[in-house]
Structures are given as structure tokens and as C-alpha cells.
Amino acid sequence: MAENPYQHAPVMPGQVLDYLNLPPDGTFVDCTLGGGGHVEAVLRTLTPVPSPKGRGVKVYAFDQDENAIAAAKERLAAFAGITYLHDNFANLKAVPEQVDGILFDLGVSSPQIDRPDRGFSLQHDGPLDMRMDRRQGLSAKEIVNNFAPEELTRIFFDYGEERFSRRIAKRIADAREEKQIETTFQLKEIIEAATPGWKKRETVTRIFQALRIAVNGELEKLQCALESAAALLKPGGRLVVLSYHSLEDRIVKHFLRERSEFFKVLTKKPVLASEAEIAANPRARSAKLRAGLKL
């Protein structure tokens, strides 16, 4: 049987478990289920298998990718007490009870990136899509072909922190006058043509990141979900967030500091993966963990 591409190792599972500090009969929300690695780590640590009725951790698991949910159900088939929610974590209000722990792992799923038809990849040509949830209307193709150059510049600068944002936006606007930009490689070539040689790869990566964030409303949804998490946690409950770029990490850091009436910050500085874990799991290289205790 082929290996399930979603079943990769979770990032920093030991630190996540330590900071969540869940009771053995607690209630836990995984806002970014992916292939289920963090849920599996929680349940294997705290829940007997098979689980006697009424014992063990209760889990609410969100993911907007139906393929990820299917993969997680396969991985977690031995465990009871999991409610799967095909939804974005911005809808945390769908959880019907207060909980003991909430986890966000904000890394993009590698199977989504690797599949050319999803439109995230720099390595494979595919349609310009980048939707995490394919039920939504807005795609990268729509943004690239229809947004004004000024708005493209804002997206590239705000979400990609790209210094050549204006130049790239103008080159895109000129190119789409001749023909629609349909594929990832078309866009990649346009970006490279507008960028100095020494910065091409970094710039393409930044622009693709900016488009992905804009298509999926990632930063706005994160801010909304953090506010909901503050209300959803029980007193003494824990919020744990793994972020992978500075924009996300900044939002989480400021949220915890500015909500001092709700949270005690447990991580004065972000917790980083060890060299040993990075060697075993390269996805952990850019991860930063921050945590707060609900007062």
C-alpha cells in the first residue's frame, strides 16, 4: 500500500504536549489537523487504546482540506472521542463547550504544496489556485489577473515583505494585458523577469507566500481565531501556537501580550526545535512555539 503523504511527523510534539499540559480526561481542540500527528501524540500519551467509554481526551479537530481529514481518520481509527470539523479554525465557535487546550500548527501541509493541481508549488507547474478550501471562490488566478496593480503591490509588500513589490506588480499587469496568467510557472517566469538575479528564488517564494495568505485570508482568520480561543478556553486552559514566518509569529506574540487580562504568557521568547529534531524532521526548522495560560 502506498504511503499516505499526509502522515508526516508532527512538529515539536514533546514541547506541544508539555505546554498543553492536558488532563487525562480533558477536552482539546486541534485547529489545524493536517494528517493528525499532534492529535495522535496527545491521544497515545493520555488515552488508553481501546478507550473505555467515557475515558480519555475528547478532541475537536478542524481542517479545511477534506483530503487531510480523510488521512487523519485513517491514522486515528483506533481512537474514540474525536469530532472532525471540515471548516476553517476561524469558526472555533462551532465547538459547543469550553476546553482545556487549543493548538494551532500554522504550517502549510506538504501534500498540498507538492500536488501541482493545488497551485502552491514552485517546483511543479499547475493551475494558479492556492485555495486551502476548494469550496471558496477566490483563487490566486483571480487575484493575479483582476486586482489593480496598487492592490497587488500591497499584498506583496504586506504579506510577503518583498522590496520589489511595485516592480513585480507592474510586470504582472503588463503581462496580463497580452494574455491571462493561468499557471504557476507563468507567474514564476514573470516574477523572475522583474527581479535581480541574486534574489530570484527568494522573491518568487515571497510572492507565492503573499498570494497564498491573501487567497486564504490567513492572517485575518488567525486574529479572529485567537480571539475566539480566549473565550473558548477554561480558566487554567492552555493555548499553544506553532508559527513558521514572522507575520504569524508577530500576531501571536502581540495577541498574548495585549490580552494580559486573559492570558499569562508561558513563553517569554519563542521555543525553537532542537538540532536533533530538525535533522529528523526538517519541517521543524522555522517553527516557533508560543504558549499562554488562560487566567
Explain this structure to me?
This protein has helices at residues 13-20, 37-46, 66-75, 110-114, 140-146, 149-160, 165-178, 184-193, 200-216, 218-232, 246-258, 275-280; strands at residues 27-30, 58-63, 82-86, 99-105, 233-243, 263-265, 271-272, 288-294. It is globular. The mean pLDDT is 92. It contains twelve helices and eight strands. It has two domains: 13-110 and 219-294, Rossmann fold (3-Layer(aba) Sandwich); 115-217, Putative methyltransferase TM0872, insert domain (DNA polymerase, domain 1), CATH 1.10.150.170. The termini are far apart. With 295 residues, the chain is of the alpha/beta class.
Relevant terms:
single chain; 295 residues; alpha/beta; Rossmann fold; DNA polymerase, domain 1; 2 domains; eight-stranded mixed beta sheet; 12 helices; 15% strand; methyltransferase; transferase; Ribosomal RNA small subunit methyltransferase H; SAM-dep_MeTrfase_MraW_recog
Shape: globular
CATH superfamily of the largest domain: Vaccinia Virus protein VP39
Q: Roughly how many Å is the radius of gyration? A: 20 Å
Low-confidence stretches: none
Write the layout of secondary structure elements.
Blueprint: H1 13-20, E1 27-30, H2 37-46, E2 58-63, H3 66-75, E3 82-86, E4 99-105, H4 110-114, H5 140-146, H6 149-160, H7 165-178, H8 184-193, H9 200-216, H10 218-232, E5 233-243, H11 246-258, E6 263-265, E7 271-272, H12 275-280, E8 288-294
Parallel strand pairs: 1-2, 1-4, 2-3, 4-5
Antiparallel strand pairs: 5-8, 6-8, 7-8
Helix pairs in contact: 6-7, 6-9, 7-8, 10-11
Brief overview, please?
This protein has 295 residues and is α/β, with parallel strands linked by helices. It contains 12 helices and 8 strands.
